[in-house]
Automatic annotation (TrEMBL):
InterPro entries: 6-blade_b-propeller_TolB-like, Glc/Sorbosone_DH, Quinoprot_gluc/sorb_DH_b-prop
Domain Glucose/Sorbosone dehydrogenase stretches: 62-385
Source organism, top-level taxon: Bacteria
Protein name listed in UniProt: Glucose/arabinose dehydrogenase, beta-propeller fold
Organism placement in taxonomy: Bacteria, Pseudomonadati, Pseudomonadota, Alphaproteobacteria, Sphingomonadales
Length: 395
C-alpha cells in the first residue's frame, strides 16, 4: 500500500473501512526515514524507449520524496515524507540530511513543499511546509529557515513557524501545503486543503480549502474585499479541495491544480476573491455516490480551465520557462499519481487546454525545471519502493 495515498484511494478507505482497521493500515504503511543517499538504483525500468519525446535518465533514489527545488549552484533540496530535508549534489550521486522537521507523517502528511525565498542569494532563506499536530488535531504549517555554513557542510538553521492552518482538525488527508511567491517578491501564496471535511472550503472563518496570500513573514494579506466581508484575513480565493500545485506564469497569472472528488481533477486560474465552488459544485461526485452539481454558466462559481474525468490525481505543478523544449515554453506540467503520468497543459494567455499525457510507469509526485531547461520529476515511492529522481532531456 502506498504510504502517500492518492485522494481517490484515501477517501475510499475512509468511507468504506472501520476507523480501527484504517488506523492499523496507516501504521503499517510507515517506513523508516532515510538520511543519506548514494548512486541511484537503475534496475527499475524506465518507460520504453520510443514512447516519449524525451530521454529519461534515473539520477537518484529517495524514500517517499515530496518536493524539490534547485539552488543557484545547481544543487538540489529535496523533501522526504518522514521529515528529512536533503541537500543533493548537482549530479544527484550523494545527499545528506540538513534538517529534520517535526512532522506528523500519517496518511498524506509529512514534510511537503520546499521553495527558495526571493533574494535567496543574499538572505539564504528557505520556506517549507509540513503537517503537524496541535490543539484540535492536525494541520499544515508554513516555516522558514536559513541555509548556513560553508559550501558542502551547510545545515538549515533557525527554522521558525510563520503560519499554520485554521482550524486544526482530526484526519490525515488533504493538507495541500504548496508555496509560490508573487513575481514582485512581496507576497507568498500558500495552499490549505479542506482536510476531507468538505464544508470548511466555504467557511469564511477557516483557512481550509483556500488559497492564502501572506507577507514574507507569514502575516495575513488576503483579498481586501473578502476581508471586508468577514473572511479570515489571509484568504485570497476559496471553494477548493486538495490543492497540490500553484505557480505564476510570466504574465503574472496564478495557476493552481487540485484533486477533485470522484472525478473532476482541476486546473484553475486563481482570481482574488473568487469562489471555486467546492463542495457546492464540481465536475466529480462524492465517494459515497451522492452527486455534486456540475459547474454551469451563471452559477456564481469560478469554473476550472481544464478538468479530468477519469482523474489524473495531480501531484506537483510547474510552469516551463526553459530553452531545451521551446515548443512547451509557457505550458504547465503536472505530475500524475494514480495516472502514473507526466501531464502537459497548453496555456494560451488566460485559457488552457489539455496537451500531452505521457506514461511514466510510476506515480509522479513532483515536477521541476532544471537550470539547463531539463525537466526533473520525482516518483512518489509508494509500495515500499524507492522514489526515483528522473531527468528528462531532449531525445
Amino acid at each position: 500500500m502506498d504510504q502517500a495515498f492518492t485522494g481517490e484511494l484515501k477517501e475510499y478507505l475512509v468511507t468504506k473501512l472501520p476507523l480501527i482497521a484504517f488506523t492499523t493500515l496507516l501504521l503499517a504503511c510507515s517506513e523508516a526515514p532515510s538520511v543519506s543517499q548514494s548512486a541511484p538504483d537503475t534496475s527499475a525500468a524506465a518507460p520504453a524507449a520510443g514512447t516519449l519525446p524525451f530521454t529519461v535518465t534515473p539520477v537518484a533514489d529517495f524514500q517517499a520524496p515530496w518536493a524539490m527545488t534547485f539552488l543557484p549552484d545547481g544543487r538540489m533540496l529535496v523533501t522526504e515524507k518522514a521529515g528529512q530535508l536533503l541537500l543533493v549534489t548537482a549530479d544527484g550521486r550523494t545527499s545528506r540530511a540538513i534538517a529534520t522537521l517535526p512532522v506528523d507523517a500519517a496518511g498524506q502528511g509529512g514534510l511537503m513543499d520546499v521553495v527558495l525565498a526571493p533574494g535567496f542569494a543574499q538572505n539564504r532563506q528557505v520556506y517549507l511546509s509540513y503537517s503537524a499536530t496541535g490543539a484540535g488535531g492536525k494541520g499544515v504549517v508554513l516555516a522558514r529557515g536559513t541555509l548556513a555554513g560553508a559550501s558542502g557542510a551547510e545545515t538549515l538553521t533557525g527554522v521558525t513557524t510563520l503560519f499554520q492552518a485554521t482550524p486544526f482538525v482530526e484526519g490525515d488527508g488533504h493538507y495541500s501545503g504548496r508555496i509560490a511567491f508573487s513575481p514582485d517578491g512581496r507576497f507568498l501564496f500558500f495552499t490549505n486543503g479542506e482536510r476531507q471535511k468538505f464544508e470548511p472550503a466555504q467557511d469564511p472563518k477557516a483557512t481550509l480549502g483556500k488559497v492564502l496570500r501572506l507577507t514574507l513573514d507569514g502575516k495575513p494579506a488576503g483579498d481586501p474585499a473578502l476581508t471586508s466581508r468577514g473572511f479570515h484575513p489571509a484568504v485570497w480565493s476559496y471553494g477548493h479541495r486538495n490543492l497540490l500545485g500553484v505557480t505564476f506564469d510570466e504574465a503574472g497569472n496564478l495557476w493552481e491544480q487540485e484533486m477533485g472528488p470522484k472525478g473532476g481533477d482541476e486546473v484553475n486560474l486563481i482570481r482574488a476573491g473568487a469562489n471555486y465552488g467546492y463542495p457546492r459544485v464540481s465536475n466529480g461526485d462524492h465517494y459515497d455516490g451522492r452527486p455534486i452539481p456540475d459547474h454551469a454558466p451563471g452559477d456564481g462559481f469560478e469554473a476550472p480551465k481544464v478538468s479530468w474525468n477519469p482523474v489524473i490525481s495531480p501531484g506537483g505543478l510547474m510552469l516551463y520557462h526553459g530553452a531545451m523544449f521551446p515548443e512547451w515554453r509557457g505550458d504547465l506540467f503536472i505530475g500524475g499519481l494514480s495516472s502514473q503520468a507526466l501531464v502537459r497543459v497548453d496555456v494560451q494567455g488566460t485559457t488552457a487546454s489539455k496537451g500531452d499525457q505521457w506514461p511514466m510507469g510510476a506515480r509522479i509526485r513532483e515536477v521541476e525545471e532544471g537550470p539547463d531547461g531539463a525537466i526533473w520529476v520525482l516518483e512518489d515511492g509508494g509500495r515500499g519502493s524507492a522514489g526515483r529522481l528522473l531527468k528528462l532531456t531532449r531525445s
